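As the work plan foresaw, our protein records have gained a structure token line. A representative record is set out beneath this paragraph:
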Amino acid sequence: MLYRRMPIEVESPEQLGYQNVKYNLAESSVTDFRLKNTQLDLNELVVCYGHHSGKPELRQLIAKHYDNVIAEDDVLLTVGAAAGLFIIATSLLTKDDHLIVVRPNYATNIETPRAIGCEISYVDLAFENKFELDVDHVSSLVKSNTRLISITAPHNPTGTIISLQILNKLISLAEKNNCYLLVDETYRDLTREEKLPLAASLSDKAISVSSLSKAYGLPGIRIGWVITKNKKLQELFLAAKEQIYICNSVVDEEIAYQFMLKKEEYFKPIQEHVESNFLLVKNWISGNEYLEWVEPKGGVVCFPRINKEINVDIQKFYSILNNNYKTFVGPGHWFEMDKRYMRIGFGWPNAKELEIGLKNVDFSIKESLM
């Protein structure tokens, strides 16, 4: 496989150094959780090789989280959702296979298949169409060697969602063509409308991926999961996991387990924070003379763009924003889009930081006008 570093990682706040970022609107998750807010007890934990599929009690809690529409054995714990996505791509795709993937997208969903060297067809979402997914277009791209259709729901980076009707059509398309549908559902718990059913619960051709990173603020413990009711697939994914890293860290799994036992208690303030910050962003952009957006319906990110009528030096804009105002967003090129687009994360900063950061975006545009 031919690996290359992704701009979204090279230019990430953690790589730049958090001390160099004063107003961080680049994060795609909620505020990082502090372990001091738990009564965490690891004293009796045996630091051994863990269960290869993941701590059984944690997988039971995850199945319960999804209202028991899936079973413990349908859940494979991974090192974050990123490892789950890597396992799926490298297990299902070869250079002779064909992938259909939505773009823009979380970078790993595109870069890993590229490293594999498979044939890729992109479904490019358009601002002018409100970033809506056209199932007929997806269907037209299916080939005899299509192995996987890959989407995110809610969508990263736009925060848009698909309807149940569209999800069912995509599943039917996968079933009809004997391929698989991958649904990256890391923002599912932060949907502001009625949540879609867990995709993997609807068909053995559907695969769901999620984690505790984006919606729960625990990216540092690296706990994610892959869900499929397809036993052969589950065995295949487990084989891949065992060859890559055998098992997850038992320390990470235990922290996740103790967190999940009190998940609802911890999640309520997260939801309140996200909703409050979302309203700040919505009010800011509603009267904004420079920016336009498609209002997100889920997650903690949005993907506005500088209006096409605005004549701005885009390189100067980012230079001023980053260097003068110490404010960072996710520039469009992270997602293979024009730099006039920017992903703004509103779940990570506190309200004051968000308000100042948004004002700094306006200041930077104004100072970059041509």
Notes: The CA atoms of residues 168 and 240 lie 29 Å apart. The chain has two domains: 7-32+265-366, 41-261. The radius of gyration is 20 Å. The chain has a mean pLDDT of 96.
